[in-house]
Design goal:
about 180 residues, mainly alpha, about 75% helix, about 0% strand, elongated, acetylation, Troponin, Troponin_I
Length: about 180
């Protein structure tokens, strides 16, 4: 029993030692990366941004300001162009991913809730404040006068179907049907 406890303690101690060693190694790597980034930044600034030498006269200062403004405008235009390109590619990516999703045929159903809403409230929600008409469907219907056709008159003349059956029942009715068939 004590042997298992000693073994577990040794395994835990070893795990903790390995963990601390990995953390120390990670910290040193992060510090190296930060130093390398700083050196790279300094090199880039030295290459692209020459040291500023301020001229003595007002005329030369104005010329320098004009040059700086021109550079700022050029960089701004370039930044705007790259932002537009990025937005365009993002939109294309979204469209393509949507097409891919549609082609796979797996649709994620949104969670739907039941909402009790009258037709007026629905139209008000869709149309906003423009909707002021009451939703009375029967009010907009036309009155249509029905014209009697010959078929309808014939149907009315036949009358009740029960009377017709009673007339055909029994021997008399069969005799009439037989005579009508000849």
């Amino acid at each position: 029993f004590s042997y298992l406890q000693k073994k577990r303690r040794a395994a835990t101690a070893r795990r903790q030692h390995l963990k601390s060693a990995m953390l120390q190694l990670a910290v040193s790597e992060i510090e190296k990366e930060a130093a390398a980034k700083e050196v790279e930044k300094q090199n880039y600034l030295a290459e692209h941004c020459p040291p500023l030498s301020l001229p003595g006269s007002m005329q030369e200062l104005q010329e320098l300001c004009k040059k700086l403004h021109a550079k700022i405008e050029a960089v701004d235009e370039e930044r705007y162009d790259t932002e537009v390109k990025l937005q365009k590619t993002n939109k294309e990516l979204e469209d393509l991913s949507q097409k891919l999703f549609d082609l796979r045929g797996k649709f994620k159903r949104p969670p739907l809730r039941r909402v009790r809403m009258s037709a007026d409230a629905m139209l008000r929600a869709l149309l906003g404040s423009k909707h002021k008409v009451c939703m009375d469907l029967r009010a907009n219907l036309k009155q249509v006068k029905k014209e009697d056709t010959e078929k309808e008159k014939d149907l009315r003349d036949v009358g009740d179907w029960r009377k017709n059956i009673e007339e055909k029942s029994g021997m008399e009715g069969r005799k009439k049907m037989f005579e009508a068939g000849e």
